[in-house]
Write a structure and sequence with these properties.
By secondary structure, the chain is α/β, with parallel strands linked by helices. The protein is built from six helices and 13 strands. Helix 2 runs parallel beside helix 4 and helix 3 crosses helix 6. It is globular and about 55 Å long. The structure holds pyroglutamic acid (PCA). Pyroglutamic acid binds next to strand 4 and helix 4.
């Protein structure tokens, strides 16, 4: 089995993006027999979706787990829904301001994550990793990537999902200006991401057995 893990480059005032660091760390690793490929996307609607399109044409990934930073949270948010809209008060890294355009013209308004959302949250909490569901990934790049993956991965019945992650503690310590925000040690965020992957793999295996039996 093959899994693609995507992260994003730094954007706006955030000089490091933990999603980039984790996608890079996980690249080439093997988890429970699943080979991981990490890819880092630009925070640009055009560049990110072109790069993603290429990656999705390369392989029929069994799992695509995308990661992005949400500097407002201090936990791992398991996104439940992706929306077919680009709408943000912030321009992307090319200066493009999205004002309500559809990601896939005429595509479904809402698509649902393929991850076992509740199992992941429960399991992370049991391991002392704060986690909660989120019903919107916003209208910026994270939602665009999440929607694009779900739209495409249905073609070959792969599993797509998205985790929003907080700033990492060492970055906050270095920068000294985000003390009011939530944060988590990078290692703990990464452990949570790996755990989410493991549960997704387990769930897939369980469903296959169920189908066979
Ligand atoms: N977070 C942004 C885009 C890139 C990232 O890491 C978002 O939540 O849309």
């Amino acid at each position: 089995m093959e899994a693609l893990i995507t992260g994003f480059e730094p954007f706006l005032s955030f000089k490091e993006n933990p999603s980039q660091l984790i996608a890079k760390n996980l690249d080439g690793q093997n988890i429970d027999g699943v080979r991981l490929t990490g890819a880092v996307l630009k925070v640009s609607y055009e560049d990110a979706l072109v790069a993603l399109d290429k990656l999705l044409k390369e392989k029929r990934w069994d799992i695509v787990l995308s990661l992005g930073l949400n500097p407002q949270i201090g936990w791992i948010a398991v996104e439940r829904f992706a929306h077919n809209i680009k709408e943000s008060e912030e321009p992307d890294e090319r200066g493009v301001l999205a004002e309500g355009e559809e990601i896939i013209p005429g595509g479904e308004t809402v698509l649902k994550s393929g991850l076992p959302v509740r199992r992941i949250i429960q399991s992370l909490r049991e391991e002392g990793i704060p986690s909660a569901v989120s019903h919107s990934a916003g209208g910026y790049l994270c939602n665009a990537v999440f929607y694009f993956v779900l739209h495409r991965i249905g073609e070959w019945k792969g599993v797509g999902g998205f985790l929003h992650i907080p700033l990492h503690t060492k970055y906050v310590a270095r920068e000294r200006k985000h003390y009011g925000r939530g944060h988590m040690p990078l290692e703990l965020i990464e452990r949570g991401v790996v755990r989410a992957l493991q549960i997704t793999i387990e769930e897939g295996v369980r469903q296959d057995r169920h189908r066979e039996g």
